[in-house]
C-alpha cells in the first residue's frame, strides 16, 4: 500500500501520530457521511419517496452463496476462494 511507504519515513512516534490522524479522519468522514445520508433520507421521505426495509441477514446469506459463483472468472478470485466468508467474518 502506498501510505505504508510514507509511514515508514517517520520514526515510531511519528508513525503512531500518523495512524491516529488517519483513524480520526476516517471516523470524521464516516460520521459526516452518516449525517448527510440521514438528511437526504429525511428530505426524500418528505418529498414522498417510500423506503422499503430489507432483511439484511437474508441478503448477506444469499450473497455469500451466490457471489462466488458469479465472480469465479474474475482475475484473482482463484487465489482467494473464501474471500466472501473472510469479509463476512470481519463485518
Secondary structure layout plus pairing:
Elements: H1 2-7, H2 12-46, H3 56-70, H4 83-90
Task: Please describe what this structure looks like.
It is a single chain. With 91 residues, this protein is mainly α. The chain folds into 2 domains: 1-51; 53-91, no CATH class. It contains 4 helices and no strands. It has helices spanning 2-7, 12-46, 56-70, 83-90. 0% of the residues are buried. The model has no long low-confidence stretch (mean pLDDT 83).
State the domain count: 2
Secondary-structure element order, N to C: HHHH
Alpha-carbon Rg, integer: 20 Å
Q: State the helix count.
A: 4
Show unreliable segments. Answer: none
Quick overview:
This protein has 91 residues and is an all-alpha fold. It has helices spanning 2-7, 12-46, 56-70, 83-90.
Task: Please supply descriptive tags for the structure shown above.
91 residues, 2 domains, single chain, flat
